[in-house]
Design goal:
The structure holds two protein chains of two kinds. By secondary structure, chain A is mostly beta strands. Chain A is built from one helix and seven strands. Chain B has a single domain, classed as Peroxisomal Thiolase, Chain A, domain 1, CATH 3.40.47.10. Chain B has 14 helices and 14 strands. Classes of the chains: A mainly beta, B alpha+beta.
Amino acid sequence: MTDGVTSSELRRGVFPGLQLQTYADETTEPFWSAARHDRLVVPRCRECGTFRLPPLPICHVCQSEVTDWEELPGTGTVLTFTIVHHPLHPDLAAVCPYVSAVVDLDGTQGEGARILVNVTDCDPAAVSIGAPVRIVFDHVNDDMSIPRANLVADRPV
Amino acid sequence: MTIKDKAAVVGVGATPYYKRGQSYPQTELSMACRAVLLALEDAGLSVQDLDGFALYAQACEPAELAATLGVPEVRFTTMITGGGGASAGALGVAAAAIHGGMATTVVTVMTVQQRDRRLGGSSVGGQLTYGQAAMGISRPYTAFSSNSGLLGPGHAAALIARRHMHLYGTEREHFAEVCITSRDNAIRRPTALQTTPLSMDDYFNARMIADPLCLFDYTLETDGAVAVVTVSADRARDLRHPPVYVMGSAHGGIGRTGPLNWKWLQMPEDDLVSSGSRSAARRMYEMAGIGPADVDVALIYDNFSPMVIMQLEDYGFCPVGQGGPFVADGNIRWKGGSIPVNTHGGNLSEGYVIGMTHVREAVEQLRGTAVNQVDGAEVALVTGGTSLLPMSGTLLRKG
């Protein structure tokens, strides 16, 4: 499908990734540098405290460019999700069904700093809205660490 | 000063609709030209009159179309940004160009051939031709969505639909009712691509595509072209058909709706769990000076069945969150419904030409020539959505 992915590496439930380069720029590079070390670090407006993802250059609430990078606990809750059954690419037949979710990250205001992730290593039927998850990173190469999510079984819903 | 009643749609033209890829060896350009010529002929006009293009969703390139058709002088070319959400809004832009004195005879056309690309994100020849394209968002930022497995508009619709189900108790039976209503309407239309009756059992036996959406919740994949011609209200009265006046039109949405929505989803929740159309709907009704109770037939952009339910809410036909029970009560049925919806069968069952089949049906309803004619139809709503910003709505009135 893209550079670096072969059919033999495909695993059911794990979306292999479409963009295996970060194309990092000045506003996204700190996220990926931290991801390489399994840390979830997100930009936060120094003026009004709003977190933002993707890491855009300007705060969408107060339009300030002054930004701090803060490490988050790396947990969150599922805002919504879909179980993808139909492979849009033939190679994805080995991957479907897989779960894709929108996750509100703990430690942020949620909206505006959500993360879009593949939820892996679970029965798709076990995923629900409100389910607690932990963000994990798959270090596919020296540049890209794909964020995914795993269900957190030991946290009360 | 607005464009209310200043311009009218006076001609409609279309190619046949084809299952995706089946229009070959025609081209998108040849089909666009055919639709435009048929629309001009329908109006009693010719290429000698044509001087403007009000387009959307990168339908085609006016420079190429005008050269191919031999348009004597082009005075207006505008493409609304975004995707299919802007379809209805293009009529407003046409009316604005005419009312503003920039052009006299404006065509809006959509042409699509899904042989070398598929708009839903499916691969063609082993290549994902659309889903990975960085449309409206640059590469450093697609890195935050491209690896999530969200690949196409249907995935975003599934996410939004599930949240709607969670918040409001909307059920798959409600989505099914939208699909079955559309199919019932399509069955009687010779232009429709899907004319086999659809039952609730058929719906629940269909394969899941992106849970909670199954095969029937998705639009058809179609080839074809549809064009309409808009002129000033004064001029429209002397042409071949009764004018269909543009009463009000708006496009837009809140800024945080954002670019391609399966790559974004950062908007406030009341925008996320909606069709994104509320602000355009409000401005459209204000311009027209009417409300949803005055609409006789609604042609609602149905790329995915839950988006019909959310647009019924956003355009004020029922309260937010009540769209599911509203359709379950039969309100959108052609016969006996309080607001007949997609009397042509819509994208779900007639064909998908990125919103223009809805415009065509609105004109036929207001001329009184529709196959599934709504008795006494005087006002029609046409919408475009749900897609990336902008969404759009236009109210048309019988002349």
